[in-house]
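Thread title: Can someone regenerate the structure for this chain?

I was given the following input by a collaborator and told the matching structure tokens would be attached. They weren't. Posting the sequence so someone can regenerate them.
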Amino acid sequence: MIVTPKKFLGQHFLKDLNIAQNIADSLNVNGPTNVLEIGPGMGVLTQFLLKNPSINLQVVELDRESVVYLNENFPALKGRILAEDFLKLDLGKLFDGEPFYVIGNYPYNISSQIFFKVLEYRDRVPVCSGMIQKEVAERMASKPNCKAYGILSVLLQAFYDIEYLFTVHEYVFDPPPKVKSAVIRMVRNDVKKLDCDESLFIKVVKTSFNQRRKMLRNSIAQLVAKESPLLKDPIMTKRPEQLSVQDFIELTNKVQQEII
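Best answer:
Regenerated them for you:
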């Protein structure tokens, strides 16, 4: 049995086993570790995760055809396959409430949503790695004053250290995607809670980058009074891509003072 790649699920099956091994190794597992693999497909990555005796593996797969294939070809996965949509999955019930790593050859059409969900469970997920579209990987790992730096960069880097590991070319997939891919690794940093209102922080970051080519005073004006003195603050002459995570935290606190 061979699983047919489905366009609506964003499936592009990796064929290169060396790359699959390198992705599995990107977790840097050291000692007994719970691992959740997202979208295993035909198990090209799964096979290497199963070979690691330190890994307690569960997989989540939405594609029914892939679930049948995994059951037939990976008896070690018996009882460990969640035939569900990861985005609807209650991660709080996995692994008896213990921490777990996340890995996958992620569907490109929902990769950002996957990482935002991981962010929601950041206190349970110390490491997340895997393969995504190169452009998204660059945005995740980008630093201030870079063209790729944006919403994804700031929100994820507030709680994770992100490393762009290596680029993967189109020809190692079936079918080949129209874009290059990349492997990233996210490692939880020491920040337990931001020094600001976190929901307002998200709103400030998103509002700022909605007009990323303009000075901050243009976007932040939507959040404060028309005559707010904050709009004359020197930071308002900057563009959002010039601000670090800490700068956005400080900006959030200034905005909060104006809307209380």
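The chain has two domains: 7-188, 198-259.
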